[in-house]
Design goal:
By secondary structure, the chain is of the alpha+beta class. It is 45% helix and 11% strand. The strands form three sheets. A five-stranded antiparallel sheet has the order 1-2-3-5-4. The chain is globular and about 55 Å long. The structure holds adenosine-5'-diphosphate, 2-acetamido-2-deoxy-1-O-phosphono-alpha-D-glucopyranose and magnesium ion.
Length: 359
């Protein structure tokens, strides 16, 4: 890839001298670019298979960053897209690929919390993110991935892939498929509550993995939230739940040794505390459904990983052929452990919410 040519399209400080791949995102192709003046940027190719309308996606993302920048004191607390010389926030290359550039914020991302304080900081960042966007005009947001967290629809798509079995992989994944099908009824709860209005729609991030948050290297305080591609109207419990799924697990999302995978209740408590402190007022129902958010996000992503395995690995980046199957298995193990710890999870949420009410 000729990165100099792409970089030249954007209004940069200096000329590029180096470019290297960074991060562990599953979707976009992400590079860190440095110029001869020492300026650092992120250059990213948007995944067109996942995001069918990159132009409208960038309209969303830039509207959100502009909105956030007006509200934060430190510029590192919101992403900043760099325009092209034509004044656009994206560049379409000759092959039809879409590129965007933004300031490299500095700081660091983690794939697993190094301490409970780090995890608490990520809870503050995602909670604050939702709070800051509480008066963002939600009806101006385009749905970058329609029905993104509609678990009922995710199951529909999953069952279609099981039926079609395009790669002949169903027989080797029967146990996992059956487990997930047994969870369908319980895990449809949130979507039903969304449809009935029992849970309020908010502007949410929808992809709240720990590696989508940056912490300051020195203070280890949270800086900003990354990966704004899926900012859309959604449920607070999705954002809470996905953070728990990824960050409060005892092993990586793709840990092959299932005996290592489970829910760390202490980290669950730490995140609950931070999120409730920063997210602003949640309704009693939202608070009550936080554990369900964790379970549903875990089961939902397991259906997505397994569907992608059955489809022939079209959506998520993989590092080896069985990667999506391994991911699905580890998420199933995590979901099963959450169900074993269900009462404890509910007790912790009730306790943290009561604590906050009394301060
Ligand atoms: P994906 O959708 O593939 O997850 P992300 O936007 O999350 O793409 O970027 C992937 C990774 O790149 C992040 O997890 C992070 O490690 C790194 N990264 C992205 N943006 C920045 C930034 N502005 N500053 C520093 N690191 C970044
Ligand atoms: C993807 O983009 P990234 O790596 O932060 C995915 C999430 C999944 C996650 C699983 C747009 O997140 O929905 O939960 O992988 N993002 C998209 O790790 O599908
Ligand atoms: Mg990401």
């Amino acid at each position: 890839m000729n990165y100099e040519k792409i970089a030249a399209v954007f209004c940069l400080d200096g000329s590029p001298v180096s470019c290297e791949e960074v991060g562990h995102g599953h979707i976009n192709y992400t590079l860190k670019l440095t110029t001869d003046t020492g300026a650092e940027y992120i250059l990213q190719r948007i995944n067109k298979y996942v995001f069918r309308d990159p132009i409208r996606l960038m309209a969303n993302a830039s509207a959100v960053t502009d909105f956030l920048r007006q509200k934060v004191d430190d510029p590192r607390m919101a992403l900043h897209f760099i325009p092209t010389h034509k004044g656009l926030y994206y560049h379409r290359d000759r092959c039809g690929e879409f590129w965007r550039m933004y300031d490299f914020v500095g700081g660091f991302c983690m794939d697993a919390p190094e301490s409970e304080e780090d995890f608490y900081q990520s809870a503050l960042a995602f909670g604050r993110f939702q709070h800051l966007l509480s008066d963002f005009p939600a009806d101006t947001l385009f749905e970058t991935i329609p029905e993104f967290h509609n678990t009922i629809d995710r199951y529909r798509q999953f069952k279609a892939s099981v039926k079609a079995d395009p790669c002949g992989r169903v027989a080797g994944a029967r146990e996992e498929i059956d487990y997930l099908l047994r969870q369908e009824e319980r895990c449809s709860t949130l979507q039903r509550m969304r449809e009935s209005g029992e849970l309020p729609l908010r502007v949410t991030h929808n992809d709240t993995k720990l590696n989508n948050v940056l912490l300051d290297r020195k203070t280890r305080k949270s800086l900003c939230v990354l990966d704004l591609d899926t900012v859309m109207p959604g449920l607070s419990v999705y954002d809470f739940g996905d953070s728990i799924r990824f960050g409060a697990a005892t092993a990586a999302e793709d840990e092959p040794d299932l005996s290592k995978m489970g829910l760390d209740l202490h980290l669950f408590q730490v995140y609950t505390q931070g999120y409730l402190e920063a997210a602003g007022t949640l309704t009693d129902k939202e608070v009550e459904m936080l554990p369900m958010g964790a379970l549903v996000m875990t089961v939902e992503v397991a259906t997505r990983f397994l569907k992608d395995y059955l489809d022939g690995d079209l959506y998520f980046k993989i590092a080896y052929p069985e990667h999506n199957l391994i991911r699905a298995r580890s998420q199933i193990r995590l979901a099963a452990d959450m169900l074993d710890k269900w009462e404890e999870m509910n007790r912790i949420v009730a306790q943290e919410s009561a604590k906050l009410r009394h301060t």
